Amino acid sequence: MIGKKQKFYSLKNILSKKATYNIIFGERSNGKTYSVLEYGLKDFIENGRQLAIVRRWLDDFRGKRGQTLFDGIVGNDVINKLTKGEYNGVYYYSQKWFLCRWENGERVTADEPFAYAFALTSTEHDKSTSYPKIGTILFDEFLTRQSYLPDEFILFMNTISTIVRQKNNVKIFMLGNTVNKYCPYFAEMGLSHIKNMEIGTIDVYRYGDSDLTVAVEYCKNNKEGKASDIYFAFDNPKLQMITGGAWEIDIYPHLPMKYKPKNVKLTYFIDFDNEILQCEIIKIDNKNIFTFIHPKTTPIKDDKKDLVYSTDFFPQSNYSRNIKRPVNDIQKIIYSFYLSDKVFYSSNEVGEIVRNYLKWCSKN
Question: What DSSP designation does 214 have?
Fold first, then answer.
């Protein structure tokens, strides 16, 4: 890596799609956030259009988290160059960022902010305020392996509504690392092909006769790698998300022993995020009892009798939404396997689907 200039992410390709929403995900620390911050800053200096920075929690902006957000921009002398020496720094105060300069050890701050902070958990408090100059919205780290907020997509839409009001020229960026491909935003926005995207590609979604377009980019990796990759060279597939932009997937327990059809005592199904999983309770020699889960590639044959767990609403008695809320003895037995860690998976991908379904169950 010595002597090589590292190439960082550029907005050039996705901006060429001229989409309203621009969703960008890929490896960590490749310059996604930096590029959008620079884009928004330049738009403010040249056109007076402000930047809105959205995060999930208000704590994401407290103290040094807010103050240091533009440190990379400042360190690269971007502000000094764009303002032709008028400003050279950034001052953060009360969820607003201001351009500033230092003269004889004293800070001189611009009169109006160039960026505002918005937390989804504080959406209700922002509804009465107007932001007529905002032209760019950045929702950073919208992908998470932790729990999403209840009705988070609606909270995000309410935040967008607060900012854009009657305007139709605001450009929205949603950035994330490849930490979880089972994200509620994908389903809510109808982004059906994300799980099958190749690195380096951009998909564009259109919605009927409306002018709405969403561009989704699975951004390319840095071909030379990053100097910091040396810290993550362990033989651990979980780290490929950090070093190579692969989706982060945990390692889950696989089938512990072979079984025969006669060993299957009960079959049920999990329908989650357009994925159907077949779940079998296996009993071998009266000693080994566990649940084994694998993909089901064909439709459920008897959807009027088979027990199906689905996040959708169905009136049939054989459908249930939340595996963590059993309503009869059979469902209690099924849930007991999850409580006692007696669940095995045909692949880590299947385990990841179930993990996300169980997280959904925990908050619904």
Answer: E
274-296 residue pLDDT tens? 899 999 999 999 889 999 999 99
H or E, element range at 46: helix 32-47
CB 134 within 8 A of CB 166: no
What's the pTM value of the predicted model, to 2 decimals? 0.79
CATH architecture group of domain 12-244: 3-Layer(aba) Sandwich (3.40)
What backbone torsions phi and psi does residue 15 show, to the nearest 5 degrees?
-65, -25
Give 134-177 as a DSSP string.
EEEEEETT---SSPPPTTHHHHHHHHHHHHHTT-S--EEEEEEE
Domain range annotation of the chain = 12-244, 261-362
Tell me how far apart the alpha carbons of residues 291 and 257 are, in angstroms, rounded to a whole number. Answer: 12
138: tokens are: 């950045």
> CB within 8 A of 26, min separation 6: which ones?
9, 32, 177, 178, 199, 217, 218, 219, 220, 221, 245
Q: How far apart are CA 29 and CA 5, in angstroms?
A: 15
φ, ψ for residue 176, nearest 5 deg: -160, 155
